[in-house]
Design goal:
InterPro entries: CheY-like_superfamily, Sig_transdc_resp-reg_receiver, WalR-like. Residues 1-120 form the Response regulatory domain. This is Multi-sensor signal transduction histidine kinase. By secondary structure, this protein is an alpha/beta fold. The chain has two domains: 2-135, Response regulator (Rossmann fold, 3-Layer(aba) Sandwich); 141-258, Beta Barrel (OB fold (Dihydrolipoamide Acetyltransferase, E2P)), CATH 2.40.50. Helix content is 35%, strand content 27%. The strands form four sheets. The protein has a five-stranded parallel β-sheet with strand order 2-1-3-4-5, with helices on both faces. A five-stranded antiparallel β-sheet has the order 10-9-8-12-11, with helices on one face. The two termini are 43 Å apart. The relative contact order is 0.08. Residues 132-138 have low confidence and may be disordered.
Amino acid sequence: MLLLEDDPILGELIRSDLDEMFPMGQIEVVGPAFTVSEAVGLLQAELPDMALLDIELSGDRTAGIRLAQHINQTRPIPLVFLSGLPRNEGFELAKLTAPYSYLTKPYQSQQLADTLELLMVRENQRKAGGTVSASTIPKAIFVSTGYGELTPLPLDKLVLLEADGKIIRAYLQDEERPIVFTSPGLKNFFMDYQRELEGDFFHLSRKHVISLSKIQQVKDNHIRLVRHSPDSKHTYFEIPIPKNGDSRRLLFSRLRGSW
């Protein structure tokens, strides 16, 4: 099991507790790794079958989340978070990576051991009956929304990216206010995250990237995108379809393939 923990004393305490709780060696701790880069190296060298991750490392409040995303996208293994962040912050971040469990510091040895033992039972049953596809793991893109501040854009809720010069507004389903961030341009942003966006998203124009799965209707040279649940105000966006160029043709080609 990979252990990511930047406090060396706490890291050794966790290792010692697990050695005591699992005296038959059911869990072999790899680490602790103190940084994301060190953890990536251990992942490649030791091939652990699960991971226990802190979230904040040396003031970086999303370090463990980025590592979890890397794991999910390269070699998915079950994840358990052990975090000292305020629960409403850490838990919401952790959910984006579909972990097995989320525990808070200060931790209780028995609770940690029980969580990991149940995880091992689940994994043994899963391996006996089939595998879990990595494609089912929710994904998010992290964007800079202020100095030293990263905000997740959960792709399953992202409806629309709208650019005004270098200012980009990301509209999420059932959220009133957009997430605002800066980028050299919408085209560059789309290219930078093409791997994450190309499945469900379409670069419609210089101003708009849309989610194809959120299209409610195409009518009169406009696209209607679902914005809120039916009982809310302003339940949709209406985005104009470019009249000229390849964008219009490519859009309808994509829609014919997905509908």
